[in-house]
Amino acid sequence: MLGDDTTTERRLRLLQAEFTQLEQRGPGDGRTATRTESPAPLNLAVIDRIRAAVYEVETHTRAAVPDAGPLPADAARVYDWARQHTADLEPQRQQARETLIYRQGLEHAIEMGDASVIRKHPCPGCGCWGLIWRPAAHRAACVNRYCVDHDGLSHTWPLKTLAHHHVARQFATKTSAT
Ligand SMILES: [Zn+2]
Fold it and tell me: How far apart (Å, rounded) are the C-alpha atoms in residues 116 and 169?
């Protein structure tokens, strides 16, 4: 359906591979038994982030489909899991799900140090292409000197706003194409 269905999953896998080994030690993996070297140092903050992301998707899904069943053992499959169990819901709910997933994809990319994903979005205020990431504020700021608030400060946007506009455009395209 949507063009970049697997992006968020792929980014989550990269995060896992880069910062953690935990998620690969599920039952039946087979690697645990033969592992003799000491485990790589774990970035606990990233593990927490991943868990929080999975939990957010799970909560969002179960709110609509309480009997969605157990989560997949592979954390990165949570997005597929959410899509499978909500595929029959009305378009608004599917759009909300995709917005959540897309926003998490942006978060995963930024977590890995790739804030360039921000530049692929027009400013929700003025439509220009010139957003820059402000890590401290955790928001994208517009560089258009005329795109400012009453105090003359640049308009800034949280990731969820960028995700909302991006996915809304995708759904609008999809609807008009059918
Ligand atoms: Zn702007």
Answer: 20
The one-digit pLDDT tens for each residue of the chain (178 residues) are: 444 677 999 999 998 887 765 444 445 444 444 455 555 556 788 888 999 999 999 999 999 999 999 999 999 999 999 999 999 999 999 999 999 999 999 999 999 899 999 999 999 999 999 899 999 999 999 999 999 999 999 999 999 999 999 999 999 987 776 6
**Nearest residue to 137 (alpha-carbon basis) of 159, 111, 121, 166:** 159
Give the pTM.
0.83
Token pair in block for residue 56: 């957010």
Residues in the chain: 178
148: which strand partners? 154
Label the pairing between strands 139-142 and 131-134: antiparallel
Ligand 1 centroid–CA 62 distance in Å is 36
d(CA 20, CA 94): 30
Query: If you measure from the C-alpha of residue 157 to the centroid of ligand 1, how many angstroms do you get, rounded to a whole number?
Result: 10
